[in-house]
Amino acid sequence: MQSTSSSSSSITSTILLAKLNTLLSTHRANPVFPTTYDYPLFPLLHLHSASLIPTPTLTTHLTIPPSFCNAARNLHGGATATILDVVTTLAVRLVADPVRGAWMNPGVSRHLDVSYLGAVKAGEELEVTGEVGKRLVQLRAAMREKRGDRRVVATCEHGKVSVEDRKL
Description:
There is one protein chain. The protein is an alpha+beta fold. The protein has helices at about 5-30, 75-90; strands spanning about 45-50, 55-65, 110-115, 125-130, 140-145, 150-160. The radius of gyration is 16 Å and the shape is globular. It starts with a helix and ends in a 7-residue tail after the last strand.
């Protein structure tokens, strides 16, 4: 028997994922989207789960294509940074608040500090989890293998600033 808290967190995750999928559909419908740097990533990124409690968190899965790799067939560092940037940006959208006008667009990156901890080969399946920090918007993410010992292959900290809050 499923507990009430487990059942309500599953419903919450479903609602949050539907919200993000709607956002992604709108993004993909934008005629400028195919010309963007991160365009090839979006069809590969599968939203897996989302929660707001205790910390807003988004978990995604993807399989690394050869086009994201360097000559040694390892995931390129720039591709790693792009994946982590996109997942943390999607995670911050979990806390978007139309009433306050907070985080209604993805904001601007202040910094993206990635620690590369291991090589990832083309074809590997990864789980990437983005977490929204408690103060301001300091985001964290971890990239790990989906199989085996689930070793962590990269982490990042990502500071963002909301541009809606700026006085123009």
